[in-house]
Amino acid sequence: MKLSTRLLALVDRFAPPETVHAHCDIPCGVYDPEQARIEAESCVKIAQKYHESDDPLFRDRCVFVKEERAELAKHHISVLWSDNFKPEHLEQFPDLHDTFWRALKQCSNVKRSMDPAEGEKLLALIDEIDEMWKKSGGLEKTRLNGRPGN
Amino acid sequence: MKLSTRLLALVDRFAPPETVHAHCDIPCGVYDPEQARIEAESCVKIAQKYHESDDPLFRDRCVFVKEERAELAKHHISVLWSDNFKPEHLEQFPDLHDTFWRALKQCSNVKRSMDPAEGEKLLALIDEIDEMWKKSGGLEKTRLNGRPGN
Amino acid sequence: MKLSTRLLALVDRFAPPETVHAHCDIPCGVYDPEQARIEAESCVKIAQKYHESDDPLFRDRCVFVKEERAELAKHHISVLWSDNFKPEHLEQFPDLHDTFWRALKQCSNVKRSMDPAEGEKLLALIDEIDEMWKKSGGLEKTRLNGRPGN
Amino acid sequence: MKLSTRLLALVDRFAPPETVHAHCDIPCGVYDPEQARIEAESCVKIAQKYHESDDPLFRDRCVFVKEERAELAKHHISVLWSDNFKPEHLEQFPDLHDTFWRALKQCSNVKRSMDPAEGEKLLALIDEIDEMWKKSGGLEKTRLNGRPGN
Amino acid sequence: MKLSTRLLALVDRFAPPETVHAHCDIPCGVYDPEQARIEAESCVKIAQKYHESDDPLFRDRCVFVKEERAELAKHHISVLWSDNFKPEHLEQFPDLHDTFWRALKQCSNVKRSMDPAEGEKLLALIDEIDEMWKKSGGLEKTRLNGRPGN
Amino acid sequence: MKLSTRLLALVDRFAPPETVHAHCDIPCGVYDPEQARIEAESCVKIAQKYHESDDPLFRDRCVFVKEERAELAKHHISVLWSDNFKPEHLEQFPDLHDTFWRALKQCSNVKRSMDPAEGEKLLALIDEIDEMWKKSGGLEKTRLNGRPGN
After folding, report:
1. Which residue from C44, C124, D34, D117 could staple onto C119, CB 3.0 to 4.6 Å apart?
2. How far is the C-alpha of D105 from the C-alpha of D125, rounded, in Å?
3. What SS3 state is found at F6?
4. Cα(F108)–Cα(F118) distance, rounded to whole angstroms?
């Protein structure tokens, strides 16, 4: 890393953190891993239905619709990583970068496979992200009324 | 309505309902009004932040980012209406069409205003949709593990 | 429906109607069911060509391109319903909600089938929408120069 | 132009023309300049409404919504040029390339101006395209039932 | 061409050229055929990998992902044609319109074939466009720091 | 990190690396930071032109077009991080995660500012990414013919 970049990075780290993060980059401040989870659940269901069906048209459609859903999950996960979490979270969550990296790579695996287990692995990684999000105060800070009770 | 269309409609109403609905039109069967709610909450927050700021650049950005978020809410609501709810729900929810119509029109109002109250009205309508969704068994039928506890 | 929502709805119904509807939500006021019809015609043609071909690559492409076209038809129809038609049209067209609901569900059927007849059914529903649109003054109110003569 | 490319071009020009053109690149074979015209009309109306309003929020929204509509017009025009018209049309319409080039550049002008006259110029160019399209048999060859009568 | 349009065209040709062209239509003034080339290279690679694999799922995915990539190439090429090149370039490059037309049509061919040779033909056409772009001063005028050295 | 996830991660790390990465997730294997750089250059130019102009319409357009360009840069950078780089690169580039994180956060800063210096900072970070990409053999492994000579 060049010295100039290091200096810029230093400045960034002492800049007021409240201006650096949000799901729409205003930042509006509303984040929830639930967006990624819904798409990942869709991937699991599509993979299951694919195996329950022997209609070639249906199976063809499953392939590209699952791809779209996994791409949406990937987008939501990337936004959480870059916008919701801040440098001060790195100490609290030393696995932060690694977890998100594996989650994004798992989205790619989900695209490439019709095994529902790949979607389940993605859901497990989103659960880890969800835990970090909640521990960082995500629910209180970003959702107006909390998550709706079941 | 032409006779031919009426007949087709009749046939559709007796067709097996399980093939007619899902958030990705596979149908994968995963639905949750939470997707629309997250975007609507974003609209409320953006409108609030708009009024708290006197930076013209920030305020300009709020206008078009809110518009994008309201458009996403509109899309999610439209999919719930056309894909998740079926003819047999009409008896259970006589206000079904009207509630969704007003929710979609409210998304347009949210685009056109910087008053957070417009976003709050949208949230109230999404709450009504959420109630119908839960009463129709939406949570059990469409989400793999329920909504994550708060 | 909650009382509060009922009251809001009442207010909305007496608000000046000319600000509540348009294909781009400005509202620009330009609407035409022709946008949905062009996409639906595309779906019919793709389904026909699918059956005339025995090239597996071509047939594969038909599946996902038709899906995209049906999704566009669905979007155009949803916008017409929520933005172009207003509460005062409900008396004039008691089947308004039902026709649109069936049209959107028919878009989903078009996605799921390679039978051109599904696309034809969608075209018949768009024709019904077109009639309502014209009876409500759609052509005069929303198109600058009318539809171009054949 | 390299010799190799010239040769490829020659081959292309003698290839069966029916595989080279369609609005969705299947090719489905459905084309209509009406798609571009609807977006261009929207641009004219937005520019008019912009001048009739003194609400800064409304005017702000007009700017980016018009930009989106002009971009859609640009896309529809580009597809007509590359997919609907074939080498044999060049003799029939010696201005083909030039007309389309000016129409696309006019879409850019529409983005950059709030003068409704820019949108009117675009409509005039779309009318020229429409004439070529009709003279080349566009209506009969590409639309299932012609354009709906006014 | 109508007289009125001819006159408008004349006016356009004498308008200051610096307002007529850019990859984002601001115009920002940044253009590079490299964007189209990267997508075209992706198409070639996908077609190659398709033939090296006998996994039906992988091959299915190749079909629609290549289609998306070819569509992106088509978009980038269309923007270069309409926005980067100006009337004064027509004398310098008499094949300008024809080369771009064939490049766009070749994108459609790439969509319709799994032969890597179709992608190679597209790359050859992009090379021709690249040469015109460089001869018109594209590198100096539009890229801040030139293309990064290999 | 849960034990189960750790185990899955271990398995992933010993899986054949050639299936884990590509700009379109086939994976096609074509990557180049040039895609992000072109968008970032566009952001710099738009910010410069914004300050050179006193036309309110032009300045308004600069705000949302720059936002779109920064969003594209963000997307391209995220794909490089998740798809092009593999676990074995972490030793070679210990700053890998941090550099990408700062680059993505810098895209957000570019959206929020009209200072061209923010775009320049983003370009500096893309240069760092470019160096890692080249050192990892990116040019030889992913581009068919290298980058075109200046």
Report:
1. C44
2. 11
3. helix
4. 10
Q: Tokens representing A59? A: 């199976």
Alpha-carbon distance D3 to nearest alpha carbon in chain C (angstroms): 31
**Residue F81: Cβ-neighbour burial (10 angstroms; 0-12, 13-18, 19+):** buried
Give the ipTM. Answer: 0.85
Per-residue model confidence (pLDDT) at position F150: 64
Q: How far is CA B106 from the centre of its chain?
A: 11
Matching residue, tokens 């994108």: E107
Q: Is F64 on the interface with D (CB under 8 A)?
A: yes
**Cβ proximity of C12 and C70 under 8 Å:** no
What average pLDDT does the segment F41-70 reach? 98
Task: Give the whole-angstrom CA distance, residue D81 versus residue D104.
Answer: 10
In the stretch 42-61 of chain E, residues with CB closer than 8 A to chain D read none
DSSP state of A53: -
The CA distance from C121 to C114, in Å, is 13
C149 φ, ψ (degrees, to nearest 5): -60, 150
Of A9, A75, A98, the CB nearest to F102: A9
Contact D70, D110 (CB under 8 A): yes
- For B29, the 3-state DSSP assignment is coil
Report the distance separating Cα A21 and Cα A24, nearest Å. Answer: 9
Distance to chain B for F135, nearest Cα, Å = 38
Report whether C133 contacts C147 (CB < 8 A).
Answer: no
Given D41, D144, D146, which is nearest C150 (Cβ)?
D146
Please tell me what DSSP assigns to residue F149. P
Task: Work out the pLDDT band at C150, boundaries 50, 70, 90.
Answer: low
For residue range C5-55, what is the model confidence (pLDDT) as tens digits?
443 343 333 333 333 334 799 999 999 999 999 999 999 999 999 999 999
pLDDT band, very low/low/confident/very high, at D55 (cuts 50, 70, 90): very high
Residue to mutate among E12, E18, E101, with most D CBs inside 10 A, is: E101
- Total H helices, total E strands in chain F: 7, 0
CB contact under 8 A, D112 and F57: yes
* Residue contact C68–D42, C-beta within 8 A: no
In B, minimum Cα distance to A150 occurs at B147
Cis peptide before D17 (omega within 30 of 0): no
Interface test with B, best of D53, D64, D66 (most B CBs within 10 A): D64
Nearest by CB to D30, from C30, C32, C38: name it: C38
How confident is the model over A108-132, as pLDDT tens digits?
A: 999 999 999 999 999 999 999 999 9
pLDDT at F4 over 60: no
What letter would DSSP give residue B82? I
Q: Touching check for B34 and chain C: CB below 8 Å? A: no
* Touch of E by A (3+ CB pairs closer than 8 Å): yes
- Pick the closest to residue D138 from D1, D45, D29, D63 (CA basis): D29
| E84-124: pLDDT as tens digits | 999 999 999 999 999 999 999 999 999 999 999 999 999 99
Contact of F2 with A126, CB cutoff 8 Å: no
- Contact with chain A for residue B122, Cβ under 8 A: no
**Alpha-carbon dihedral sign for residues F115, F117, F120, F122:** negative
Maximal CA-CA distance, chain D = 60
CB contact under 8 A, E57 and A113: yes
CA distances from B128 to B135, C3, C5, C90, F35 (A): 11, 12, 9, 22, 45
